[in-house]
Amino acid sequence: MKVNKNTRAGKNGKCLACPQCGHKVIVYHFSWCASSCLTKQGDIWVGCGGMIEKNDWLVIG
Fold it and tell me: Domain coordinates of the chain in residue numbers?
C-alpha cells in the first residue's frame, strides 16, 4: 500500500519501504513532500540515494 493523504505515523512511527530498492525506514511524521532513500548506519551509507516522492513510498507497517 502506498502512502496517501490519510496515512498517519502514530506514536510508534510507521515503517516505509523505498519502491526502487526496498530499503526500509521508520518515520514519525509525514510533514515532508519527498525524502532521500539514504541512511547512515555507522560508517556505511545504505539505500539507493534516490529522491522519492512521499506518495511513492510503500507502507510496511
Answer: 14-59
Strand residue runs (E) in 1-61: 14-17, 24-27, 34-36, 39-41, 44-46, 51-53, 58-59
Percent of the chain surpassing pLDDT 90 = 85
Specify the pLDDT at position 47.
92
Give Cα 12 to chain centroid, integer Å: 14
State the pLDDT confidence band at 12, using cuts at 50, 70 and 90.
very high
Cell of 14: 510507521
DSSP-derived letter for residue 2 is B
Judge contact between 16 and 37, C-beta under 8 A: no
Contact 16, 58 (CB under 8 A): yes
